[in-house]
Amino acid sequence: MKLVLLVAVVVGVLILAPSAGSTAGKPWLWQCTQIHNVEAQYNCYVRLLRNDIEASRNPAHEVPRIDSRVAAIGGPAEAGCHVLMHQVGREFARDHHVTLGSLQRYVPRSNNPNCSAGFGMGLVMYLGPQIIRSGGASAVRSCAALPTRYREYTCVHGLGHALLRAYHGNLGQSVRACRALQRAYAPDCAQGVFHDYWISLRGADGTRAPKRTISPHTLCDGRLTYIRPCWYRYFLEQPLALPVRDAADLRRSCRGLHALERYGCISAAALTISSNPFDQMHVCERLGAADASACLRGVPDQALAGRASEQVRLIRACARVTPGAREGCYEWLGRTLSVVTNGTFRERGCTKLSPQRARRACVTGASRMRAALVTFS
Fold first, then answer.
1. pLDDT of 25
2. Are 86 and 40 in contact (CB under 8 A)?
3. How far apart are CA 142 and CA 156, in angstroms?
């Protein structure tokens, strides 16, 4: 009898003990990181992120936590979370019957540009048919009701994505729908339309590749009104293009273009230099006034959200920009850092600048944070 009990205890311990293949001690999302097929890995991340959000029953609070978790593990999960959350957001909206009226309940309570912004855009993308029925006006009202300027911007950008999908890839119709909106929203909506088109060239993010490809040199010549928003995401969505690392690469990427088209191209190419805004500033410093002004529009200062001292350090780098672009640098970064901080940068950042003309330009930019951004990530 004692032997039988001893065997039973040993078997029980073996059953309860973690096996070599258990999840004990494994990092979050480890099941996906070990997959080497890109499509299979993408689907794995989508499934596990979706499970996490569903288990929480509160995406508005859970997705910001996911931002912190992917930042801690880094790698593909962090690098791709924004796009992954596009799909997660669309699926969540579909399965939970999200409407324009209920949108605010689910939008993440965060200004983080990675997972939170991606999920919010995904929710809006799903709402395309509802948006078309209202002509876009009700969607803009829903976006404008969000509590921070950055969330409002990402919502309007997502509106552009939604329109192109709802209009089955018809660029003209989609841009016209954006143009019918108020001036504060129209260019940022249009940027979302063009962004979705550049994504579709490789059939990514749930898009269908168009039968005929239009180059940015044709599409972004002003025929659809918005030149800079049209160019802005082009290079970012061309993974096989030559890398942009320095001022010479920027000039090479935009050779032969002039005026606003060159401005749009330089901004778009600068966006791909690095995810580190200081690296991009370093390149912009080496350009003449016109190209430097354009280059600065690609500096991703939203990456410094929540890092007040780094935000001030970044705008102080404007002092190294060529004099002809220096005031515009203070103004642009003052404006976009105010967007990221929902207005607090004006008092907490601009006031720390010197000389006086730098402070004045920063405050001028901050005062325009509600206007259309035209180029912003």
1. 67
2. no
3. 9
